[in-house]
Recover the amino acids of this structure.
């Protein structure tokens, strides 16, 4: 049975531009809302609500686990129901999650908000990337580069924008009847995700995606089809540590003794580097080349060497590590996307993206727990964690090189057989 729902590569330049423009607009609104809140939510839970660190970790962990676990089936569901429908639903759920986050006064409300945010995130990424995968190959690299660049710009602009709303939000909160500055910030994030939902709806009306009558059996069939693709699975497993290598800095930077100002500088510089390299990645479709992914993974691992607390010159090391981390994210993300699209049949793009995201999310979750435990063990444990991340980057790069060669041989074999 042919699903035919993930869009085949389009040859309509105007249609492709509409898709890319809409998804970039969605990314801008959604990412600004997300980063503006998430940069300040821990302080809100700690200072405004008086929660213990363990409870805060539980709330944040629930969002991550829900989002990563749902990536496995959601990609196939996206293929069945249409990417624009799933994108609009994702944005509505996240808007509701942020609205609840701003009004929740206890653990139950916060956990409910975390679940909504996690489900919305699981729906959002396969939907947006499936739409970009459906444009013509000549425009796909530039479209995805614009998508990544917009997200990284929002990562830089979002936290300061959130701080402005928090610092000046008390008077406005009273006027609008919101519970304090964080309530206003969360409401603004909900409004931004509502705008993103509207953009998805407008794109849906232009595209007229029709849902498939198939049900749960076809969802399982989509996942099963991906799991039978051994060449892709080797690639997905090989690059699964990429998310951990990119995001472990959120835990590592504060725990290695850098204060809020230095941490903010690290993340802003990293996001700027990731955005700046996107034109280079898109030119000549460099992100599709196997060496680009390997280089990105090596850079991601190498940055952690510079964070080992050895004494003087720490600020210089931090700046270099931030640049390496940003360049790695800027190269690895489009490389994985382009390679996944190359492996996936048009009707299974969402399923392939979902399986890849699920694997990387599970590795990031387990690896994050391991890194935290090692840092709790003292200086020796912290050094072990950092060296382990360096080695993981090198091993992942080597594994991606082997999977790339075997995948090329497999595709060549299939091509010869088909003749």
């Amino acid at each position: 049975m042919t699903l035919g729902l993930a869009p085949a590569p389009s040859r309509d330049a105007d249609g492709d531009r509409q898709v890319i423009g809409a998804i970039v607009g969605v990314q801008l609104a959604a990412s600004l809302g997300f980063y503006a809140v998430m940069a300040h939510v821990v302080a809100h839970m700690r200072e405004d609500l008086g929660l213990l660190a363990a409870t805060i970790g539980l709330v944040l962990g629930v969002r991550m686990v829900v989002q990563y676990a749902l990536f496995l089936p959601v990609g196939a569901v996206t293929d069945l129901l249409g990417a624009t429908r799933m994108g609009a639903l994702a944005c509505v759920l996240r808007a509701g999650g942020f609205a609840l986050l701003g009004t929740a006064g206890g653990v139950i409300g916060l956990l409910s908000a975390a679940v909504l945010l996690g489900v919305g995130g699981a729906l959002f990424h396969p939907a947006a990337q499936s739409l970009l995968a459906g444009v013509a190959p000549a425009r796909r690299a530039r479209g995805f580069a614009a998508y990544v660049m917009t997200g990284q710009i929002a990562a830089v602009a979002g936290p300061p924008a959130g701080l402005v709303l928090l610092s000046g939000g008390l008077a406005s909160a009273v006027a609008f009847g919101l519970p304090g500055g964080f309530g206003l910030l969360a409401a603004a994030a909900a409004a931004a995700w509502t705008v993103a939902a509207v953009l998805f709806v407008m794109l849906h009306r232009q595209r007229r995606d029709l849902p498939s009558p198939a049900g749960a059996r076809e969802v399982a069939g989509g996942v099963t089809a991906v799991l039978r693709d051994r060449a892709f699975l080797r690639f997905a497993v090989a690059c699964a540590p990429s998310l951990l290598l990119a995001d472990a800095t959120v835990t590592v930077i504060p725990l290695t003794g850098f204060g809020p100002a230095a941490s903010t500088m690290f993340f802003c510089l990293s996001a700027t580097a990731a955005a700046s390299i996107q034109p280079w990645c898109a030119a000549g479709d460099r992100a599709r080349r196997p060496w680009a992914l390997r280089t990105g993974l090596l850079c991601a691992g190498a940055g952690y060497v510079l964070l080992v607390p050895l004494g003087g010159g720490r600020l210089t090391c931090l700046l270099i590590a931030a640049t390496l981390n940003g360049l790695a994210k800027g190269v690895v993300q489009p490389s994985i996307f382009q390679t996944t699209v190359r492996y996936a049949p048009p009707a299974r793009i969402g399923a392939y993206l979902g399986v890849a995201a699920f694997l990387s999310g599970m590795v990031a979750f387990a690896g994050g727990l391991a890194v935290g435990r090692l840092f709790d063990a003292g200086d020796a444990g912290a050094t072990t964690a950092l060296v382990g991340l360096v080695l993981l980057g090198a091993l992942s790069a080597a594994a991606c090189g082997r999977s790339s060669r075997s995948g090329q041989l497999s595709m060549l074999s299939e091509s010869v057989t088909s003749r």
